Each structure stands twice: as structure tokens, then as C-alpha cells.
Amino acid sequence: MYQATVVNAEGNPIFRVEGTAFGKSWSWRRKVFDAVNNQHLFDFRHQSLDLKNRWVLEDSTGRKLGSIVHKTQLTTSHSAIDATVRTTAGEDVLAVMQPRDATALTVTVSINDTIIATITKVADNRRILSHGDLDSSVWSIKVAAATDLTLVRSFLTCSSYFAYSSQKI
Question: Would you identify the family this protein belongs to, as annotated (predicted)?
Fold first, then answer.
């Protein structure tokens, strides 16, 4: 079982991600929960055998909330993703995550060329233990006012996952 908990600067849990261990699932499904009230926010899963490396965001009932396309794995844009997100009004909006440096330690999330969040990896604390991996890396997140935090959580999950999986290679 894979589990990660994200905490704020004071060490209080904000949200957690759960799923099967790496390589145990065709869809790599991850369930994201609000850590305060244990509410299931959304699922994040891979579309199996997809050459374009697409991911899907779904609510707890399986209704599609949006899709994520990992732009490339082989260039300096290895952490760039495009996410099409459905608003509560039923409108599809494109949100873009772009790396700001060659190693993607800092990425920005924007909608219509307006930055809504900046995610920076502050400390890479991944350790390999005899009984498995432990990642206590530290990320700093700056979010614009009135931004949907669930959307930012999905991008943070992507950033963390891409950073983690690139170290598995």
C-alpha cells in the first residue's frame, strides 16, 4: 500500500494520498483525501497502455472531473502537464503546469496565462530503507486568492509523483 501525507508549515496534515504499491496496479489509481475531515476528494488514475500518458481525475462516484496529459518524459519539459478541468458550471478549462528550471524544482500552474500557484521542492528527503521507500520531501506552495485548492492538490500530487517516479528509473 502506498500512502503519503501532506502537512502544512506547522506540521498539521492537509491531505493524504493512498493507493497500491508501485507496479501492482494497471491504473496506478491514487485516492486523495482531505486530512482534516477524512473526506474523499478525488481519484487520480492512469489510462492504461496510453502512449500519450494521460491521467484522469474522478470524484468519489467515478464521475470524470478532468484529464491530465503528461507532455513528455524525455526533454526538459518532463514535468509539464496540461489539465482539462470541468468547472461546476460544466465548462472545460485548461490549466497548465510548467517547470521553471531544468530539474523542475519549481513549477507554476496557470490558467489563461495567469499564474494561480507556484510549487517549489524545498528539500529532497527521499531515503531508501531495507523495507521500502520513505519520502519526506518538503514542498512550498503559493496559491493565488480564490483558487480551488482541490485543483492545486492535483498538481502537487502530479509534481510529487513525477519527481518520485523519475528517481525509480
Answer: Belongs to the LOR family.
